[in-house]
Design goal:
One of its GO terms (molecular function) is dihydrolipoyl dehydrogenase (NADH) activity. The protein contains twelve helices and 22 strands. With 481 residues, it is an alpha/beta fold. It folds into three domains: 222 residues, FAD/NAD(P)-binding domain (3-Layer(bba) Sandwich); 110 residues, FAD/NAD(P)-binding domain (3-Layer(bba) Sandwich); 105 residues, FAD/NAD-linked reductase, C-terminal dimerisation domain (Enolase-like, domain 1). Strands 1, 2, 3, 4, 5, 6 and 17 form a seven-stranded mixed sheet that branches. β12 and β13 form a beta hairpin. α3 packs antiparallel against α4.
Length: 481
């Protein structure tokens, strides 16, 4: 491979592998470098998301949810059973099989599209060259017209909680438990902490989540976060806000955690402690000192609105650049970058990237929340429709939560859609499609939604914005025109 490559991608996560496939589809010679290997020591494409993040966590969430429903909710449907048990190794084994299937799928897509994959650690050096250190220690250098940096992120480690992969674990370890911890602690009440806490709580663990912030899910709409706190605590999660850890002591097979809250110093003992306080960009040893690419003091690569770095022809996407650490954001940035390399004027509307937390009830939103808009002085109308009033939700015995639509008072343009409840992510995406085309609440209210569906809740919330909901009493009665 002595010739210059059109595009070299470092990292085969949801940003990198999508960028590589799209580049090849556009007729560009493409190489993708990935160092991650599976338990068998083989190259595993898909990055954190596919191997130890999005996909495996959803597999466990779905398995644990089915067990939870069978144990606690089948009777209302007239389904009885004498006993029910969970085989944790089988559950984790199913998750592993899903990963293998999907990583093989990415490998097949690379082959079908003509992407060359190289196993090893990629490092950007001067002159738009990439130094590749292979597993056997050998080093080779390839040159490219364009380079896309997509190395992803890793769990944040904190000095107080050194990961030992036994008692104190990270999110990756928490996907591999072979038994259910009796006392499970989680540091951090973000998406990762809540999802992993939910899995093991459903299976019988006594889960305590310690969150240093005083506000629960502060990036979510306040009404949504309040409902989520209520629902999750009712399920058994012990969520302690304003809990600042001051010391950890590992004693044999347990960890003693000391923290402070508004009541003073507290001590609690766990069999396992998951550290889920966030993720940091994986930029260590990614760039040579003379690469010319700038990194900020938090380790993020500095890019413009189109993910171009300070070096012409070098781009960075996904978790190593500004914005939310979301797989779908990384994928779209990968497509945007290679299409711009090809001469297109592709751009991303960063204001309309959905956020999802895959607990149950599911939590999702797109656009601005009510507190953000009011802080800017915006005047808005709000429509809320609870799932308890949805015939489809009642039939499914799944009535937690609501749909909330926020629209500008003057223009009626929808500024945010927020959902907590079953299929929240799917409903929010309907809102995102409309918002991308500048939809008004009235536009949504005039669309025919099928009955009975959960999506009718979005329809009713849009109607409620202007006081015209049909299946709930309106806060403000619609005025005749």
């Amino acid at each position: 491979m002595s010739q210059k490559i059109d595009v070299v991608v470092i990292g085969a996560g949801p940003g990198g592998y999508v960028a590589a496939i799209k580049a090849a589809q556009l007729g560009l010679s493409t190489v993708c470098i990935e160092k991650y290997t599976n338990e068998e020591g083989r190259l595993a494409l898909g990055g954190t998301c596919l191997n130890v993040g999005c996909i495996p966590s959803k597999a466990l969430l779905d398995s644990s949810r089915k067990f939870y429903e069978a144990r606690d909710s089948f009777a209302i449907h007239g389904i009885s059973h004498t006993s029910i048990a969970i085989d944790v190794p089988a559950m984790v084994g199913r998750k592993a099989n899903i990963i293998k299937s999907l990583t093989f799928g990415v490998t097949a897509l690379f082959k079908a599209n003509g992407v060359v994959s190289i196993q090893g650690h990629g490092k950007l050096i001067s002159g738009k060259k990439v130094e590749i250190t292979k597993p056997d220690g050998s080093v080779k250098v390839i040159e490219a017209d364009n380079i896309v940096l997509a190395p992803g992120s890793r769990p944040i480690s904190i000095p107080l909680a050194i990961i030992d992969h036994n008692v104190i674990v990270d999110s990756t370890d928490a996907l591999e438990f072979q038994t259910i911890p009796k006392r499970l602690g989680v540091l951090g009440a973000g998406a990762i902490g809540l999802e992993l806490g939910s899995v093991w709580c459903r299976l019988g663990a006594r889960v305590t989540i310690l969150e240093a912030m005083d506000t629960f899910l502060m990036t979510a709409d306040a009404a949504v976060s309040q409902e989520a706190y209520k629902a999750l605590t009712e399920q058994g999660l012990d969520i302690r806000l304003g809990a600042r850890v001051v010391s950890l002591t590992v004693n044999d097979k347990e960890v003693i955690v000391t923290y402070t809250d508004q009541e003073g110093k507290q001590t609690i003992i766990f069999d396992k402690l998951i550290v889920a306080v966030g993720r940091s960009p994986m930029t260590i040893d990614l760039l040579a000192s003379d690469s010319g690419v700038n990194i900020d003091d938090r380790g993020f690569i500095q890019v413009d609105d189109y993910c171009a770095t300070t070096v012409p022809g070098v781009y960075a996407i996904g978790d190593v650049v500004r914005g939310m650490m979301l797989a779908h954001k990384a994928s779209e940035e990968g497509i945007m970058v290679v299409e711009r390399i090809k001469g297109h004027k592709t751009k991303i509307n960063y204001d309309l990237i959905p956020s999802i937390i895959y607990t149950h009830p599911e939590i999702a939103w797109v656009g601005k929340n009510e507190q953000q808009l009011k802080a800017k002085g915006a005047k808005v109308n709000v429509g809320i429709f609870p799932f308890i009033a949805s015939g489809r939700a009642i039939a499914a015995n799944d009535t937690h939560g609501f749909v909330k639509v926020i629209a500008d008072v003057k223009t009626d343009r929808v500024l945010g859609v927020h959902v907590i409840g079953s299929s929240a992510a799917e409903l929010v995406q309907q809102g995102a499609i409309g918002m991308e085309f500048g939809t008004s609440a009235e536009d949504l209210s005039k669309i025919v939604f099928p009955h009975p569906t959960l999506s009718e809740a979005l329809h009713e919330a849009a109607l409620a914005v202007n006081g015209g909901a049909i299946h709930i009493a309106n806060r403000n009665k619609l005025q005749a025109k």
